[in-house]
Amino acid sequence: MKEKDEPAAPRASRAKAAPRNEAVAPSISQDLVFRIFRDNPGKVLSYRQLSRRLGVTTKEQREDIFTHLKSLKQKGLLSLLQNDEYRLTDPGAAYAATEPASGRKTRRNERDPFAATNRRAGRPVETEFGQDPVVHRRREAGFDFPNSDDPSTPHRRPRPEGGGEVITGTVALATASYAFVISEESEQDVRVFTDRLKFALHGDTVRLRLRGSRDGKPVGDVLEVTNRVRPELVGRLYMQGAVGFVKPDNRKVYFEVMVPEEQLHGAQHGDKVLVQITEFPDGDTGHLPVGEVKRSFGKAGQNEAEINAIMAEFGLPFEFPAEVEEESESIPLEIPQSEIERRRDFRHITTFTIDPVDAKDFDDALSIQKLDNGHWEIGVHIADVTHYVRPGMALEKEARYRATSVYLVDRVIPMLPERLSNGLCSLRPNEDKLTFSAVFELDEKGKLYSSWFGKTIIHSDRRFAYEEAQERIEGLDSDYTQEIQLMNSIAKKLCAQRFKQGAISFETQEVKFKLDADGKPLGVYVKERKDAHKMIEEFMLLANRKVAEFVYKLKPRKPRLTMVYRVHDAPDEDRLQNFALFAQKFGHQLDLSNPKKLSAELNDLSSEVVGRPEQNVIQTLAIRTMAKATYTTDPRGHFGLAFEHYSHFTSPIRRYPDMMAHRLLEHYLEGGKNMEVEPIEEECKHSSEREKLAANAERASIKYKQVEFLQDRIGDQFTGVVSGLTEWGLYVEIEENKCEGMVRIADIPGDYYELDKDNYRLVGKNNKRIIQFGDELQVVVKSANLLDRTIDFELVDNRPDSVKRREQEERAASRETRRGYRPEKSSKGGRPGGGGGKPGGNKRRR
Fold it and tell me: What is the mean pLDDT of the segment spanning 655-683?
């Protein structure tokens, strides 16, 4: 969540400009501005923070600061990072030239009234937070520019009074500088810069006025926020006196929230908190939104605080409502005989489950028996969740809202309460369980002869972990070895048929962690998919496909029977062309001339890159090139699986669309009439959105744990692959654990490098060395910042120490020449000082 053009520095009570009949406020010298940077090494300072520190109260003082910043930047002493954020260009040189060691500490504490408040056990705020805790991200700064009170100033564009078309749309935050408004009234998404958003957040509905275009795309200004969907932020609390300010974790959020003392509710400086915004400023007052702390998760950087903060950031629930828990507890364990009699009984047939070793919710089981004709009957049995969770129940409403279980690194946020997910509905061994089944007659070559769908009762004979099933596939002579080997053989035939029909083989690599009792990562590894995983997957795919086909064919004419489908559209032609050009840089050719052979081309590419350094980069980008799979009532088919019709039927314990599919299938099996499309389509859209949110939360928790893992590996060397390139750095992914960090271009040894965007590479200015996507590099972990979830690497430099020293000296001399630094005395006889600043930082959002 973000901020808009919010001028004034946040304060508990805002200082007002001196009345005209009072003494004129003193001017602010350049030396005084510079000293703030010098005395705060390691910080990035915004214009508004400087105003706060210097107690600015008048327009003239604001103009002074702006003039000094501009002058210091022109001299090369300060660098403008983004918006109005500055840092010292070379902290070491400026500090040494302007400040004797004996005077540092005293003067810093004299000028910083919060020096004592902002320390914990002797640690400065910048150490505690990893960067300046109050950083404001704006494209323009409202009154922060000189003459900003004058609407004609070029730094402050006047609000449009009229003339542009007014439309309504939904906000999609893109960066800290701008958002897009998506509207059915506009063919293109409208870009709105954050100083024109009126504090709108992602998902909010707004009215905006179009005001022309930039770079060929429409731009506009928000006139009114008509609906705020979730006025909450998660971030770190920073105290200034008795007033708190919450700096959002989400880097796209462009504003902070001020929290009055009485609304802190016990939260302390440095805590990770959830704040609810209770008051949004009206117009261009320059105030920040005001909020109330709803939850304090504890000190930022601690495992429980950070994981809970991720849950809050993505709106994930912390607990079930009391009525939901009570309702689940009231469901009887016993299965009535009348219910058993209306179901097909599989309790006498060999049945088992295969799941991860730490799983507790077993929502699918397989049964197998040989038929008299020599064929095999394989049953895919799915927990009959909808038998227990009925429409109108609190359980149903909560499951519909959650829509999916969320699997964070160290915990599961289930869709259903534990009594259902791990108890009543879980297909535990040696217990009778109610199921909804898809039963298939197949031969040993994988040919399908018939399908049956209906309600069943099973009794699982054995609970296998994937590792145990894999041992039997690989030859271990033990219980159910023959059955598992036969089913694995049939599954491989089914898989071969899929790929023959055009299925695509690209797969993402799943990162797993070994955690200690406190959740601290002891190791990171890539989960290996073996035959046992693929066997279960093939039979689940078969059930999902055949359920979808069955419902689709029940009514041969339009309108077809309403069903929940899982669809995956063919990739966009432009994105596919860009991907082909990218793959070509690595010597891989994609022939896109025949759409019918596209899947074969992609599969050939997938095979080509296996074992090569660019494998993960190519496969990841290929998946990103594809459209996203979603839920809908429109049976458009699944491009990636090469299925004409596909549904989700096999995981109702953890996915609400599977519950919808169960209800619809049961309704049609009983001869029910067609269901209305619109309500089900709305539920499909909601489930798709919740699935996307869950995936983002899972990625955030993985990134956090990767950073935490590397915190204890500072200085360690790893082999990595170039996974991204920008103008300020290259991203490297460690091969063994998929942790990704950045190497700053300025820190690459041996030469100065420039980005060649067209060819996805960096090129050395003198030595012409090329660094490109997929290159294998040796890196050393330089830093890992838990609070920002960022990792910094440096390239291994095996050159002699004398060569390294000479290069460092040459670079330092080059910086001095470019700056042309000359100390100047202020009107008060002081000297400009130097401070440190953290460069832009590894702010890539994954």
Answer: 97
Q: Is 174 exposed, middle or buried (0-12, 13-18, 19+ CB in 10 A)?
A: middle
Q: Model pTM? A: 0.74
**pLDDT tens readout for residues 775-817:** 889 999 999 988 788 999 999 988 787 877 787 777 677 666 5
Average pLDDT over residues 47-62: 74
Residue 105, number of CB atoms within 10 A of its CB: 11
What SS3 class is residue 521?
strand
Number of residues assigned to the chain: 846
Query: Cα–Cα distance between 624 and 626 in angstroms, integer?
Result: 5
Walk me through the domains of the chain, giving residue ranges and CATH numbers.
Answer: 30-88 (1.10.10.10), 166-227 (2.40.50.690), 232-300 (2.40.50.700), 322-488 (no CATH), 531-699 (no CATH), 713-809 (2.40.50.140)
- With b for 16 or more beta-carbon neighbours within 10 A and e for fewer, the 133-147 pattern comes to bbbbbbbbbbbbbbb
Most confidently predicted of 144-158, 248-262, 577-591:
248-262
Closest to 317 in 3D by CA, of 399, 261, 388: 399
Q: Are 741 and 793 in contact (CB under 8 A)?
A: yes
Going by C-alpha positions, the residue among 389, 409, 411 that lies closest to residue 401 is 389
**Mean of pLDDT over the chain:** 82
Contact 254, 247 (CB under 8 A): no
Tell me: the pLDDT tens digits for 55-114? 777 767 777 887 888 888 777 788 776 556 777 776 555 544 444 444 443 333 333 333
**CA proximity to 418, closest of 500, 332, 325:** 325
Cβ neighbours of residue 516 under 8 Å, at least 6 residues apart? 522
Do the Cβ atoms of 1 and 204 come closer than 8 Å? no
> 700-755, pLDDT tens digit by residue?
999 999 999 999 999 999 999 888 888 889 999 998 888 999 999 988 988 889 99
- Helix (H), strand (E), coil (C) string for 229-292: CCCEEEEEEEEECCEEEEEECCCCCCCCEEECHHHCCCCCCCEEEEEEEEECCCCCCCCCCEEE
Q: Which amino acid is at 238?
A: Y
Which residues does residue 224 pair with via DSSP β-bridges, in sequence order?
Answer: 207
- Give the number of other CB atoms < 10 A from CB of residue 47: 22
CA 250 to chain centre: 9
Instruction: Give kind and range of the element (H or E) at residue 27.
Output: none
- Write the DSSP assignment of 743-798 as a string of letters: EEGGG-TTS-EEEEGGGTEEEETTT--EEETT-EEEEEEEEEETTTTEEEEEE---
pLDDT of residue 124: 35
How would you classify the pairing of strands 448-459 and 344-345?
parallel
